[in-house]
Fold this protein.
Amino acid sequence: MKIGDAAQRLGVAVHVLRHWDDEGIVVPDRSPSGHREYTEEHLTRLRVLRACQGVGMSLPEIRQVLNRAEPGRAAVIEQRIGWIQAQRRRLEHAERFLTHVVDCRHDLLTRCEGCSGYAATTGHAGAD
Ligand SMILES: [Zn+2]
């Protein structure tokens, strides 16, 4: 299919697909006249790419993950899994806090051990 059709099916702009082609991440076939031709396999690959982006992976990381021959691939994947696990812990912690706070009887957060404990354990670990 043509690039416009592929972009529409994925819900992305045409220039995004061109960029991913230029970056060598998902490289479509070329018609004899030089136009990009996407197969279902390309589309599947593009969906995987989008899913990877959805969990915060960068294009260089995704390139490494999608190509088995890439050096350092295992390390990149391991690092990303570690990041996901850290995010999960953070989200679970936030969930416990919010579940507590909805029923918290204290007037001030600072007077409640459950509430102030959340801030103490969370710290400033927000930026990674
Ligand atoms: Zn509380």
About this structure: The mean pLDDT is 88. The first strand starts at residue 29 and ends at 30. Strands lie at 29-30, 36-37.
